[in-house]
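About this split. The held-out portion is used to measure sequence recovery: a designer receives only the structure tokens and must propose an amino acid at every position. Recovery is the fraction of positions where the proposal matches the reference. Here is one held-out target exactly as it appears in the evaluation file.
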């Protein structure tokens, strides 16, 4: 472990990270938001998902620093009397969970199909790439809405809320796999003609072993960059779906659901219900995007 840490400190990636103040700030902000979401049960002033602790008499309180605010609610309350700060912390947990799970799901599908398409070639390559080309003609949000609508129709209104998390992961993941597949396929087309792959074939290793044990580690750099950028896109896509009313239920809202709920009261003067979740979503997505941009430049040998 100490040797690994020493190699990490001496690497070009760490050097690039320490020389970029914007990247350091982005990493600190992203880490702070992720930790605050993970520790929400410990640091949140209230539990917004516990009906026994809610009171309708506490609804529509403005932020505590305003004249009509309540010291118990730093960022005010929503229409159900839920503390906005607490709902943001808990809502980030749902948004981040959907984002990470959908990115991992898309990465597994895309990397696997990209490896197969690039290594096997022929008809298999053509079929996978034509499917990818067709998928690219549809916006990601439209694909997600289509999958969500099919799942909603098959499950029925009663059972849908029990599987909504899985449906969101499936719909967002299936919207983003193409980028991984096309990138990995291009890298595999280069790698499969190199000497180490030819040597592996010569000693009789199976194609699956060659693809996942030898070729995959050499094409992971671009995959990590895409995954970092797609994490922000996945969080925004989930927020968009929830804003449109096809995401998580209002009883366990994500950031998108909070923005949608607050939007109904924005023009009646209760601006804090939607503004603070919106700012949190924007800061989270921006910090992750900046980290993705830095990682792309740090792993690009042409920029070293």
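Reference sequence for scoring:
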């Amino acid at each position: 472990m100490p040797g690994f840490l020493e190699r990490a400190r001496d690497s070009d990636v760490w050097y690039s990270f320490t020389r970029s103040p914007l990247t350091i700030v982005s990493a600190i902000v992203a880490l702070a938001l992720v930790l605050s979401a993970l520790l929400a049960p410990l640091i949140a002033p209230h539990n917004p998902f516990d009906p026994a602790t809610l009171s309708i008499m506490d609804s529509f309180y403005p932020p505590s620093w305003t004249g009509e605010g309540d010291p118990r609610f730093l960022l005010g309350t929503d229409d159900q009397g839920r503390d906005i700060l607490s709902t943001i912390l808990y809502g980030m947990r749902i948004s981040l969970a959907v984002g990470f799970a959908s990115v991992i799901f898309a990465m597994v599908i895309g990397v696997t199909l990209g490896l197969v398409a690039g290594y096997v070639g022929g008809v298999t390559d053509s079929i996978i790439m034509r499917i990818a080309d067709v998928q690219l003609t549809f916006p990601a949000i439209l694909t997600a809405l289509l999958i969500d609508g099919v799942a909603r129709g098959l499950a029925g209104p009663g059972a849908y809320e029990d599987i909504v998390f899985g449906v969101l992961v499936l719909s967002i993941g299936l919207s983003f796999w193409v980028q991984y597949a096309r990138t990995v396929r291009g890298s595999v087309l280069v790698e499969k003609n190199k000497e180490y792959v030819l040597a592996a074939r010569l000693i009789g290793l199976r194609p699956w072993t060659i693809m996942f044990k030898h070729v995959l580690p050499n094409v992971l750099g671009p995959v990590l960059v895409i995954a970092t950028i797609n994490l922000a896109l996945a969080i925004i896509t989930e927020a968009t779906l929830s804003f449109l009313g096809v995401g998580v239920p209002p009883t366990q809202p994500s950031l998108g659901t909070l923005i949608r709920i607050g939007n109904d009261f924005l023009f009646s003067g209760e601006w804090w219900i939607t503004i603070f979740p919106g700012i949190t979503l924007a800061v989270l997505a921006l910090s992750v995007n900046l980290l993705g941009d830095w990682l792309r430049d740090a792993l690009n040998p042409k920029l070293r």
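Annotator remark: The mean pLDDT is 84.
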